[in-house]
Structure formats: structure tokens, C-alpha cells
Amino acid sequence: MSGNVSAAGVEETLKDFWASRPRRPHGGRKVAGVAAGIAQRYQIDPVIVRVAFVAMALCNGAGILMYLLGWLCFAQEDDEVSAVESLFGRGRSATPAPLTVLLCLGLLPTSGFFIDGGFTMVGGVLLSVGAVYLLHRGRGQLNRPRPTGGLTGDFTTGVGVTGSEQQTERVTPPAWDPLGAAPFAWDLPEPSGPPPAPEQPAHRPRRPRSRVGAATFALALLVLGGAVISADFDSAYGDWFTAEHTLGLVVAVLGLGLVAGALRGNAGRGLIWLAVPLSAIGLVLTTAGFDDFDNSDRMGDISARPTTAEAVLDEYHTKAGQVELDLTALPATSEVRTEVRVGVGSAVIRVPANADVEVSCENGLGSIECLGEQHDGPKGSVRAEDNGPDGEGGPKVELEVRTNVGSVEVLRG
């Protein structure tokens, strides 16, 4: 597993990884045992592997794609083949076929994100593959799994013997027949004495509680409190401590605590149950943005159908709910401009069929349908200018529409 990196060396390492890939254990798993299997195969702390999967999941879902691949391609410890191999009839797997099909279908959206996810997603997948390659190259000789089936022997040397080969002809008499008078009975087991007394289970001293988790949690609270206090002060750095940045600092502290605990022998493992949901919340905050939550005190639905240009408000804002704005009743000579902003919810605007429309639609996370232009996914932006089927003429409408999480629709008629 050492030496210079070459094309032949890379190919050999990858072939050896596939031949001795990790198996998913029944014990110590959190979801499907992929992280536990990698940790067991290469004799590293499973917390480190789980933290790596969480970190890669923040790279536009790269960790989710890698975990699904491991679930499909790593067999359980008592299975003959992996789930995807069993689907093609190459052996037995305890994973039900319907679940395997669902996991394969789950690869489709994650693979689509790999194509459209930009440098972050592609970089996360490449980092994951590179990490597995280096891990196998450096520690692939450790804890190599034995093959299933009727073979026994040393898997690392490829030497196996069948059940018939394990029985050899006995050439010396047993202790109970020193004169060799009954060679026909030499295959019988040696007479045993009275059964040994059952061993009393040794009392295992209780492991002292680690201080890593408590210290990390306390430090995270101090960071959170310091960020909140700094945000209240009108200083040069006060504007930096937004919700996204503050949550990022807290997750970073928890991550450092997990790494420190792993180095001390699985200490502070409970922190992962706090770090994972906070990381997911941070991903949503970073992707969507929630600036419009501070722009309005209103919550709930808004519905308006103005019949004159003067009745059109300069802005329609809500923190959570739906904004329905119908401009189809405006006179033909109207000229209006308005903004529609929604924190969480949807915005639906209808413009006259013959209106000259200039519109800007933005979405932090969700879908956009803006005068025929569509966009799905995070951070969508669509700008359009459309004079309608009759060409230039009719009401003039200028719109700026944005939702943080939800949908945007600008329709005619």
C-alpha cells in the first residue's frame, strides 16, 4: 500500500479497495452502518467518519450522495453481496429489494445536484473520493474482511481450504490409546474431564465521564452569547454577527469538540446530535437568506385587487404567508411600480394580458415561474421584459418580487 503514485498504482489500489471494501456492521450504526463500517474497516474513530459525512453534506449534498453509494455498495457483515449486487441476482443480501430500488432512485436527484451543484458539490465528491483513496492506501492492510461462503483461511494471503481439506489423516495414537490397539477409533474426540465452572463476569469499572462534551457545550454558549452582545453594539464588527455567521461559529466550536473528543477516545460523542441539526439549519439560512424577516411586522396572507394605479401600494410584505396581487383590473393607461416580499410562503401576481411588464423575480429556496421563465432550486433569479401578445401598449407594470423560502409566480390574465 505504499510507493509512488502512478496509474498502475491507483488502479491496483482501487481494485483492492473494491475487493476488500468495508462491511456494514449491525452494532454501532446510526443509520445504515456506512460510517461505522468504514471506521471498523480502517480502525479509526467512527465519530470522525460521521463528522466528515456531515461536512461533505454541507457541500451541496456531496456527503448524501457518498452515503447512498456506500449503503448500496457495502454489504452487511453477514451478507454474501451488497444490496445493489443482490438486485442483479449475484447473491444474498438482507436489504429488501424495494428498499434497494428506492435507494437507487434516491441517487437520481443527488446525481443531478452533482451536475448542477457547481464547484462546491463537485469539489465535495472529489474530496470524499480522494480521502477514501488515501485512507485505503495507508490503512488498507488493517482488518481486512474475510470472504463469505464455504472457504476458510487467511483472506490477506488468498489461501483458503475447504471443509474436506481441513480433515487430515491422523498418524499418531491419542493419549487414551498409547499402544495403538484401536486405530479405528482414533478419530473420536479425546475424553474430557468435568466441565469447567462458569467464569464469573469481571466487574468492569465505570468509565469516568469525559469533560470534553461539557467544556465544548459551555464554549459554544459563550460564543453564542458573545456574538449576540457584539451584534447589539454599534461597532465596525456588529453587522458581521448575523444569524448565519453566529450559527457557523457555534457549529465550528462543536466540530472542534468532536475532533478533540475523538482523539481522546470517543469522548463528547453526544455533541453530534447538536451539531447535525444546527448544520442543517445553517445550510438553509445560508442558502435561502432571511433578510426580509426584518422588513415587515406582518404575518399572514395578503390579498389585493386594485382597480386604479393610486390603489397599488409601493410594497406588499409579509414574514410568513401568501401574497396574492391581482392587477388585471387596472385601466389601460395605468403606470405602476410595486415590490412584493415574502419571508416564508408564496407570491402570486397576475398582470393584465396586454400589459407591458418589466419584472425581477428572486427566490432563496424554492421555485420561480415568471412570465414563462422557470427556475427550481436554491438562489434563483429571473428577469423578464414582456410587452404581451399585442406588442407595446397598454398598462405599464414594473415588479420586484422575492421570497426567501417558497414559490414565486407572475402570470398574465
Question: Could you characterize the architecture of this molecule?
Answer:
- This protein is 38% helix and 20% strand.
- It is of the alpha/beta class.
- The strands form two sheets. Strands 3-4-5-8-6-7 form a six-stranded mixed β-sheet. The protein has a two-stranded antiparallel sheet with strand order 1-2.
- The chain contains eleven helices and eight strands.
- Helix 3 packs antiparallel against helix 10 (243-263).
- It is elongated and about 120 Å long.
- It has helices spanning 7-19, 34-42, 46-57, 62-73, 83-87, 97-116, 118-139, 163-166, 212-232, 243-263, 272-288; strands at residues 152-154, 159-161, 302-304, 315-326, 335-351, 356-370, 373-386, 396-412.
- The longest helix has 22 residues, at 118-139.
Keywords, separated by commas or semicolons:
8 strands, elongated, alpha/beta
